[in-house]
From TrEMBL:
Domain Protein YjdM C-terminal: 48-117
A Pfam cross-reference name: Zn_Ribbon_YjdM
Span of domain Protein YjdM N-terminal: 6-32
Name the UniProt record assigns to this protein: Zinc ribbon domain-containing protein YjdM
Similarity field: Belongs to the YjdM family.
């Protein structure tokens, strides 16, 4: 596949080439492989960033920026809740932070809903 493995937008493996463009059927993103550059690092940026673009690493503390409903529970994580000692993980569902939230327990969060403390 000319070095292109995943969609640069949603990181899906299920991509195909249509004429001169690459197409992702999952997010409908279309791109030209030449426009991204030949550098493979631009295609696979594995750094996890918060809602403001700050890089997150293991052990950081973050603050939740909006109320989040917890699936399978009647509780919510309130905006402004500080979460300490996060772990950056790699999953396919977009939840890329593993942590323990006080009063709720262990869970995974999406980095787009937190900011670095």
């Amino acid at each position: 596949m000319n070095g292109v493995v995943n969609c640069p937008k949603c990181n899906s493996e299920h991509i195909y080439q249509d004429r001169g463009l690459w197409v992702c059927p999952e997010c409908s993103h279309e791109w030209n492989a030449e426009s991204l550059g030949s550098d493979a690092d631009t295609l696979h940026d594995t750094t996890v960033r918060d809602a403001h673009g700050n890089v997150l690493v293991d052990g950081d503390s973050v603050i939740v920026i909006k109320d989040l409903k917890v699936k399978g529970a009647s509780s919510t994580i309130k905006g402004g809740t500080k979460v300490r000692n996060i772990r950056v993980i790699e999953t396919s569902d977009g939840h890329n932070i593993a942590c323990k939230v006080d009063g709720i327990g262990a869970m995974n969060l999406k980095s787009e809903f937190v900011k670095k403390a």
